[in-house]
Amino acid sequence: MKNHLVITRALQLLTVLAVTGFYSLAQAQVDNITVQLALDGEQNMLNVTTRGNCSDNNHNGCVSVHQGKQARINFTLVGNKQCNRADGGGWELGEVYLGGKNSQGKPGYWGNLDGEVQADFNVADAASGQLNGESGSNDQSIVIFDANNYEYDIWYKVTAVCVDGSGSVVDTVETDPRIKNGGTE
Q: What is the pTM for the complete model shown?
């Protein structure tokens, strides 16, 4: 009876340690990635100012989510946000779209997201490729979450909008680097 109690307690302790270790491991596998965006001097383009982390074809803003990891990607508007197209206007981040899965070049259209992409991202509309912003998103920062269950490359497009004093959108600019998912295995 005493041996049974010792074995039971040891198993309980091992179970607690295993669950705690798994929880800690799961928490440690989420990378927080910030992609900074700024308007060019003429406010005709949205440029990525953050160096990418992709090993091949590394362009500014290229996000590589390594195998077995997940990512919380924060697109942040930095620099001058005063819009020169409207009195009292300001630039805000608009939307994030995905498209062109495994395409070598920038896609001609966005969306048409398959089941793998929909499982990895919080998709608002699969046809257009529009994503939902996660907690912490606002008009200067859009946060998306990449579960990275599947291995593929996909392009993303972030828009910034010039909003006048009455809240109307006057103009839109964009940028479109890519995300390289390493998958879970």
A: 0.82
Task: Look up the domain containing 71 and give its range.
Answer: 30-182
Confidence class of residue 16 from pLDDT cuts 50, 70 and 90? very low
Answer yes or no: are the C-beta atoms of 40 and 49 closer than 8 Å: no
Residue 171 CB neighbours (<10 A): 17
The whole-angstrom separation of Cα 120 and Cα 123 is 9
Q: Taking a C-beta distance cutoff of 8 angstroms, is the pair 117, 131 a contact? A: no
- Determine the Cα angle at 46 with ends 139 and 181, to 5°: 85
* Greatest distance between any 2 Cα atoms in the chain: 83
Structural domain contains residue 17: no
Q: Which two tokens stand for residue 87?
A: 């009195």
Number of domains making up the chain = 1
CATH number at residue 54: 2.60.40
**Rounded to 5 degrees, what angle do the CA atoms 124, 128, 130 make?**
35
For residue 160, being part of any structural domain is answered with: yes
Q: Is residue 87 part of a domain?
A: yes
pLDDT in tens, 52-75: 888 776 788 999 999 999 999 999
